[in-house]
Amino acid sequence: xxxxIFGTKKSFDTKKAQRYFKERRIxxxxxxxxxxxxxxxxxxxxxxxxxGIDALVNEDAKDQDTVALVQHLVESxxxxxxxxxxxxxxxxxxxxxxxxxVGYAPDVWKAWE
Length: 113
Known about the structure:
Layout: E1 3-7, H1 12-23, E2 28-32, H2 40-50, H3 64-72, H4 75-84, E3 93-96, E4 99-102, H5 106-112
Parallel strand pairs: 1-2
Antiparallel strand pairs: 1-3, 3-4
């Protein structure tokens, strides 16, 4: 199992995800989206795993202008805009190889163990 948790240090759900894996002594790698961000390939892989770009967008993000813009663009442009503005992604994004979840999803993670 190769767990990666993408999120921010201030995100409550990201902290809960980290605690979930720590309690089970499952090693993981934390990637702070404010410092590093996801690569194009990583974002594409996660979007495929979770059922598309709509599942990745946080409707309640602080940057409501970008959220509205992403929702009204054509599919190809939406991906590029999300790649540029990762602050509107739902957190945490947890990857295990080709599998991924968006948000706090312990039921899915349990199946990965």
